[in-house]
Design brief:
2 copies of one chain form a homodimer. By secondary structure, chain A is α/β, with parallel strands linked by helices. The first copy, chain A, has helices at about 15-25, 35-50, 60-65, 75-85, 120-130, 145-150, 165-175, 190-195, 200-210, and strands at about 5-10, 30-35, 55-60, 70, 95-100, 135-140, 155-160, 180-185, 215-220.
Chain lengths: ~230, ~230
C-alpha cells in the first residue's frame, strides 16, 4: 500500500490544491496545520470535494511523521518557524519537498518581487534548517494554487531541484500522479535560486493576462527522463 | 520600407542566429562587431546562408546608428565596454534590446550559475549606461543560439521586459517576424532579474536532457496581447 503523503501547511491555497489532486489520484493525504482543528476542517472539506478521499488532519509535527516524503507548503514568512517546530518530528531518511517562495509579499512588499535569502533560496534555507539526514527537494513553485485546487485539466511542467537524481525521482513520481503535470529535472538544489523567483514572474503575467499561467520547458525529448 | 535592424555583437552565436532568422523574414540586417572586417565576414556568411539576404557588416558604433531598434547580443563580459563605446553612437529615441545574461562563465565560472549585478540585472546595467533618451528592453535570453542559427522550426516564447508596453510592443513586432517565437510581456525591466538567470537554468537542462530547451508560458489567452 502506498505511503500517506503529509502536506505541512495543507490548509493554505497551494497545499490544499496539492491535497485535492493527490487525493483524486487515490493517495492517502495527511493535512498538517499549526492548529489541529484547522487541519481537521481542511480534511473535512477535502472529503466533500473528492468523494472517497482518504485524508486526516493533524498538527504539523504529527503530520510530518506520517510519510517518507513530506511537502512543505507554508508561506515564506512562516517557513523558518515551521522548520524550527519540525526539528523533532522530521527523521533521518525523509525527503522534505519545499514549495515556498520568498515573495516580497512576506514583508508587505510586492508579490512580483522576491527577497534575497542569505542561503540563496528558500529551499537552501530549508536544507540548512532541516535535521541531519533529511534531504530537501524543491518543486511546485510555478503551479498556480487556484488552478491546482480547481477542476480544470493542468498542462504544464514542474521544475524539480535537488542534489541527487534518485531523490528527485521519488518526488517526480508523486508529481506524475497529477494529470497534466510533467516533472522536469532542473538541476541541483541551488537551482532553486532561479526557479523560486518564477512565481513572482508568473504572478505579474497572471495580472497582465488575466490567467493562471504556468511554465513549460520546450524541446525536451519524449522519453521519460526519470526511468 | 522597413528600417534596418542593427545587431551589435552580431558575429556571436546569438546575434548571428538572430540575423539569420530576421534576414529570412526579409528584413535588412546590419551586423556590428568591434572589428569591421569580422562584421563583413559574418555578413558574407549570412548572404551564403540566406539567399537574397540584405545585410552589411560594420563597426559596432556605425552599425548602431542604422536603425531605431538596436539589438545588443555581446557576451556579458563585453557588455559594459561595448556600451561605453556606444555612448556617442546611440541617440535619443532609440530602443536598445539587451540580450546579455550575466552567466558566471564570464569570470570562468559555471554557465549554470549567474553573477550578481549591482543594478539587479544586465538589462538594468545597460539602462544605467545607455545615453539619455535611449530605452532598454530585454529579450531573447531563453532562445538557444544554435537553435536560432539552425533550420529547425522554433516553438517557444520570448519573455520581454521593459518599463513601457508601447516600447515592448515595437520589439515584440520584430520577434513575431520569426516563425515559432511568441513574445510575452514579462513586466518591467526589473523583471529581467528573474528572466536572465533562466539561461543558466536552460543550459543545465540542455546538458541533462541533450537538447536545446526553451521556455513556454502556459495558460495565456489566445488573443494577441500586443494589438
Amino acid at each position: 500500500m502506498a505511503e500517506p503523503i503529509p502536506i505541512i501547511g495543507g490548509t493554505g491555497a497551494l497545499g490544499y490544491g496539492l491535497a485535492v489532486r493527490l487525493a483524486r489520484a487515490g493517495r492517502t493525504i495527511v493535512i498538517g496545520s499549526r492548529k489541529p482543528e484547522r487541519a481537521q476542517e481542511a480534511a473535512e472539506r477535502l472529503r466533500e470535494t473528492v468523494s472517497g478521499a482518504d485524508v486526516e488532519g493533524l498538527e504539523n509535527g504529527e503530520a510530518a511523521q506520517r510519510g517518507p516524503v513530506v511537502f512543505l507548503t507554508v508561506p515564506f514568512r512562516a517557513q523558518s518557524e515551521t522548520l524550527t517546530n519540525l526539528k523533532e518530528a522530521l527523521a533521518d531518511g525523509q525527503l522534505l519537498v519545499d514549495c515556498t517562495v520568498p515573495l516580497a509579499a512576506a514583508i508587505s512588499g510586492k508579490a512580483t518581487r522576491t527577497l534575497g535569502v542569505w542561503q540563496g533560496s528558500a529551499a537552501q534555507q530549508a536544507q540548512e534548517m532541516a535535521p541531519d539526514g533529511v534531504t530537501v527537494i524543491s518543486a511546485l513553485h510555478t503551479v498556480s494554487a487556484p488552478a491546482l485546487a480547481g477542476d480544470e485539466p493542468l498542462d504544464e511542467d514542474v521544475l524539480v531541484c535537488g542534489d541527487r537524481k534518485a531523490d528527485k525521482k521519488r518526488v517526480a513520481e508523486l508529481i506524475e500522479l497529477i494529470d497534466g503535470l510533467r516533472p522536469v529535472n532542473a538541476g541541483p538544489l541551488e537551482g532553486s535560486r532561479i526557479v523560486e523567483p518564477l512565481t513572482a514572474l508568473l504572478i505579474g503575467i497572471n495580472s497582465r493576462y488575466k490567467t493562471h499561467a504556468g511554465i513549460r520547458i520546450t524541446g525536451l525529448p519524449g522519453d521519460d527522463h526519470w526511468s
